[in-house]
Amino acid sequence: MYLLGYDIGSSSVKASLVNAETGKTVASDFYPKTEAEIIAVKPGWAEQKPEQWWDCLKHATEAVLGASKVDPKEIKAIGISYQMHGLVLVDKDHKPLRPAIIWCDSRGVPYGEKAFAGIGEEKCLSHILNSPGNFTATKLAWVKENEPELFDKIYKIMLPGDYIAMRLTDKICTTVSGLSEMMLWDFKNGKVADFLLEYFGFDEGIIPEIMPTFSIQGRVTAETAAELGLAEGTPVSYRAGDQPNNALSLNVFNPGEIASTAGTSGVVYGVLGEVNYDVKSRVNTFAHVNHSNDETRLGVLLCINGTGILNSWSKRNVAPEGISYAEMNNVAAKAPIGAAGVSIIPFGNGAERVLQNKEVGCSIHGVNFLTHDKSHLLRAAQEGIVFSFMYGMEVMESMGMDVKKIHAGHANMFLSPLFRNTLAGVSGATIELYDTDGSVGAAKGAGMGAGIYRDHDEAFASLEKIEVIEPVVAESAAYRDAYDLWKSRLLREI
After folding, report:
1. Taking a C-beta distance cutoff of 8 angstroms, is the pair 364, 358 a contact?
2. For a Cys-Cys bond, which of 4, 244, 351, 404 suits 240, CB 3.0-4.6 Å?
3. Which of 349, 75, 19 is nearest to 234 (CA)?
4. How much is the average pLDDT of 56-77?
5. What percent of the chain has pLDDT over 90?
6. Are 142 and 107 in contact (CB under 8 A)?
7. Calpha distance 383→386 (Å, rounded)
8. How many angstroms separate the CA atoms of 427 and 415, rounded?
9. Chain mean position to CA 289
10. pLDDT single digits (tens) 388-413
């Protein structure tokens, strides 16, 4: 018995086939092998053709079926993870009306700002828990104003994962979690945010049918089965945006648990057990995969643009030429905690939401030409990235989240012992590192939705924990002092 998971990214589509009994991945592949095309007609625009995702999914499916030699009839459920906040528009024949406007497209920003002021900040925050911002609803507002003839042809609006599910099953539906990332879910009243639809002039009929995140949301059609080499009738039983799904992949379901990634940008995603929001809208809040009217489970998302990109910049421009990241970490570790007074503010990759969309840039503080060297700069860079996470986690704590444990994949900056020890030391949280990815998580989510697993504990019983990092009590004061100095320098910048 097997489970198939898809991760629909903006760079590639990944497929993983998981043995449901053992929890082990039997085959995994992605397509394309180079980054997928993003169409940028104007500065700040970013679009992709939904048909491109489907073509990539076909290639990835063919690869995993070929490598595993698994009988498609043994695949008992399909799950989907997808790039969040995109906008897919289809007509009554289920055909895309235009390329999808994806997550990194910024044309919705002015529409979100106008709606935040026009509807009222308090109403937006208390009902949708966020500013309307640059999300799916405001991208649709742009279409309504700039492509009115096309807007009139819209049958349904969808997220990228909804589109893929539609192609598999010919059924159009979405989830509460999905609607919340569109900024179209009213948490106070537990329904579609009709006040926002009314403000923008959207008909509620364009909203797809709402299905539970874990449920039989449709079944693979005969036509699709023939196209992909799958079995007709295979259920699609889970879908979620990439950040909620990453948390699921790391078995993060309960209040106070945190999922984190640190690639080019960095993410801290924590689960909150009560409806709350940040009055300054410095973090985003969505319905987590296990949120329900009976049990509040919100995903609070902190995204830092200037994280791993600073580490890679440091390797190119500061570290001795030709060394590896592991060797660079060793150089950085020669400097003491706090880098002997050197602080680096890491926000050199554009505006940061946690700073209320200010663009403060990257800056280096406290350098003494007689006492500091490369090791201090390299350590200060990694510490600055960690401290940006801590700054955001303080916002989460102000919302009522008690950060005790951080789950992360064993990848990117979490490969650095210095990075991990600094994060544990300054936050006081235990860090657990796991070997998993989004497509594997989506497969296990499908097992939950199809009833193959009783609950998430059974689904993720086989999740491989690679390492546990506990905070060292004797070092906590030094980390906090370094963070306080860093924070004081940041506050002067903003």
Report:
1. no
2. 244
3. 75
4. 98
5. 92
6. yes
7. 5
8. 18
9. 12
10. 999 999 999 999 998 889 999 998 99
Token representation of residue 106: 């910024």
Residue 162: φ, ψ to 5°: -65, -40
- Closest-CA residue to 165 (of 150, 151, 181, 178): 178
Q: Quote the CA–CA distance of 64 and 57 in Å, as a whole number.
A: 11
Q: Is the dihedral of CA 447, 432, 423, 436 positive or negative?
A: negative
pLDDT at 473 over 90: yes
Please report how many Cα atoms fall inside a 13 Å half-sphere around the Cα of residue 113, on the Cβ side.
7
Give 132-165 pLDDT, tens digit per residue. Answer: 989 999 999 999 999 999 999 999 999 999 999 9
CA distance 106 to 98: 17
Mean pLDDT of 178-203: 97
pTM above 0.70, yes or no: yes
Residues in the chain: 494
Helix (H, G, I), strand (E, B) or coil at 311: helix
Helices 374-398 + 308-317 axis angle, to 10? 170
Using DSSP, state whether 120 is helix, strand or coil.
coil
Q: How confident is the model at residue 52 (pLDDT cuts 50, 70, 90)?
A: very high
**Cα–Cα distance, 299 to 84 (Å, whole number):** 13
- CA distances to 142, 149, 379, 391 from 146, in Å: 6, 9, 48, 38
> Is residue 357 predicted with pLDDT exceeding 90?
no
Q: Can you tell me the distance from the alpha carbon of 438 to that of 431, in angstroms, rounded to the nearest whole number?
A: 19
With a CB cutoff of 8 Å and minimum separation 6, the contacts of 275 are: 129, 187, 188, 296, 298
39 C-beta neighbours (distance < 10 Å), count: 15
pLDDT at 353 (0 to 100): 87
Q: Are residues 354 and 334 in contact, defined by beta-carbon separation less than 8 angstroms?
A: no
Exposure of 27 in the CB half-sphere (CA atoms within 13 A): 17
Q: What span, in angstroms and rounded, lies between the C-alpha atoms of 7 and 5?
A: 7
Residue 158, beta-bridge partner list: 88
For residues 79 and 2, is the Cβ–Cβ distance under 8 A?
A: no
Packing angle, helices 160-169 and 50-68, rounded to 10: 60
**306 has pLDDT over 90:** no
CA distance 129 to 123: 9
User: Is 264 strand, coil or helix?
Assistant: coil
135, 281 contact by CB (below 8 A): no
The torsion defined by the Cα of 480, 483, 485 and 486, in degrees rounded to 10, comes to 180
Cis ω before 50 (30° cut-off from 0): no
Q: If you search the block for the tokens 């008690």, which residue do you land on?
A: 402
Look at residue 85 and tell me whether its pLDDT is greater than 90.
yes
| Strand 235-241 relative to strand 75-82, pairing | parallel
